[in-house]
Amino acid sequence: MNSTELAYRVRKHALVMVNKGKSSHIGSALSMVDILAVLYNDFLNISPLNIASDDRDYFILSKGHGGASLYATLAVKGFFPVHELDKHYQNGTPFSGHVSHKGIPGVEFSTGSLGHGLPVATGLALASKIDNRNSRACVIVGDGEMMEGSNWEALMFAAHHKLDNLTVIIDRNRLQSFTDTENTVALEPLDSKLNAFGCYCLEVDGHDHVEILKALNNKDNDGRVKVIIANTIKGKGVSYMENKVVWHYKFPDDEQLRAALNEIDGDFYAS
Ligand SMILES: Cc1ncc(C[n+]2csc(CCOP(=O)(O)OP(=O)(O)O)c2C)c(N)n1
User: Does 217 have pLDDT greater than 80?
Assistant: First the structure.
């Protein structure tokens, strides 16, 4: 399986999961599917065989509200059976809407309260350096989430400790819950701010698998935290959801699900 096929499968699962669970945040989940697909297919040293090894890489999804696509990625990559995804959002199961590590193989840390994943990833990267391990830490944060002060504190700390084994990917879809990030608390010029904090900053099309992988493999950060600003489209892959803030917190009904799946199949088989 290549990353394109992984992304295709994850998009389908995520849509079905939120429809069945009558849950939400599908726009947020679809926004980062291509990033997750490249990370898990081509970059991270994480597999069902090494999830307990000290030398594995660490991945944390800080924007835990988009958990459907992380659960689906892990299932398709064999961390647990795909049929378990039916439990998403069901009472009494571990598959909560916001990401949970309890009882779900492959999830490192429960998230959903924004602003925690990057500080934790920073600690993991520092521990790996102290222990002389090769583990790298990777984290996806939302762009709206970058308004949480804890992220900037973590970046300052990471720069001080020269954590070049830490990669931060910002899902820059420009929307948050209710409106555009720039209408809420402006982030721009984001790259200058990150560079001023001592990071090595790259910008990519967050749906272009070749660009994403090239940025992940870039080794020019030289003692600096790598931050990849991934320009994405919230709801990517389903035209009636794309860039529509209403799909931040909404699930497709059965008819909308059929239309979404048809569109995704069409795109995949045409490519
Ligand atoms: C500490 C905290 N405050 C508020 C929220 C409510 N909340 C959930 S998602 C969200 C917006 C996140 O936007 P962004 O980081 O841009 O992610 P996107 O869904 O657009 O990918 C907010 C404010 C939360 N989960 N945690």
Answer: yes
Residue bearing tokens 């030289």 = 222
CATH homologous superfamily for 3-270?
A: Thiamin diphosphate (ThDP)-binding fold, Pyr/PP domains (3.40.50.970)
270 alpha carbon to ligand 1 midpoint, in Å?
34
Look up residue 120 and give its two tokens: 């934790």
d(CA 125, CA 205): 26
Please indicate whether residue 115, judged by its CB atom, sits closer than 6 Å to ligand 1: yes
Kind plus residue range of the DSSP H or E element containing 144? none
Q: Which residues are registered as beta bridge partners of 229?
A: 170, 203
Measure 271 CA to ligand 1 centroid, in angstroms: 33
- pTM assigned to the model: 0.98
Ligand 1 atom nearest residue 177's Cα? 11
How confident is the prediction for the chain on average, in pLDDT? 97
